[in-house]
């Protein structure tokens, strides 16, 4: 007896690009692994750009009380953490690989999110670039 249907589609392709779910990993501190997830549902990957995604995330951070402790960071970068059903990195905060091709271009208003390979269930990290570069140069984790 089989408990799963091997013909069942993956969740990454089960929803249209115009109604996708994204998980945004908002990073306040790399060394302290201070991360809070934001889930965006029914997000349109065909019409939204990286700048739109950043603006939508910043709006939610500034509006929702759960993100009050995260408001003192200047968030200025978005990077794919993992694609749906892909392997995850050993770093729990950010993916150190793919700096060249998984960082979203916030200046390109013509390139849509789906053109970065983003699909339903993709995880994206929102962070401050300077903080990331400091942490990447010395990835020492600190504990309170």
Give a description of the structure.
This is Altered inheritance rate of mitochondria protein 29. InterPro entries: UPF0538. Belongs to the UPF0538 family. It comes from Torulaspora globosa. With 144 residues, this protein is of the alpha+beta class. The protein has a single domain, classed as Phosphatidylinositol 3-kinase Catalytic Subunit, Chain A, domain 1 (Ubiquitin-like (UB roll)), CATH 3.10.20. The chain has 2 helices and 4 strands; from the N terminus they run E-E-H-E-E-H. It has a 4-stranded mixed sheet. Strand 1 (20-29) and strand 2 form a beta hairpin. It is globular. The model is unreliable at 1-6 (pLDDT under 50).
Features:
alpha+beta; 4-stranded mixed β-sheet; Altered inheritance rate of mitochondria protein 29; 2 helices; 4 strands; 16% helix; UPF0538; Ubiquitin-like (UB roll); 144 residues; globular; disordered N terminus
- Sheet having the most strands: 4 strands, mixed
SSE string, helix = H, strand = E? EEHEEH
Rg from C-alpha positions? 16 Å
**Segments where pLDDT lies below 50 for 5+ residues?**
1-6
User: Can you tell me the overall shape?
Assistant: globular
Helical segment count: 2
Helix content: 10-25%
Mean pLDDT over the full residue set: 85
Strand content: 15-25%
In spatial order, strands of the major sheet run 2-1-4-3
Q: Assign the CATH topology.
A: Ubiquitin-like (UB roll)
Please state the second-level CATH architecture.
Roll
The CATH superfamily label reads Phosphatidylinositol 3-kinase Catalytic Subunit, Chain A, domain 1
- Number of structurally distinct domains: 1
DSSP strand tally: 4
Compute the separation of the termini in Å. Answer: 49 Å
| Global structural class | alpha+beta
- What is the CATH first-level class name? Alpha Beta
Protein name: Altered inheritance rate of mitochondria protein 29
Family: Belongs to the UPF0538 family.
InterPro entries: UPF0538
Pfam families: DUF2340
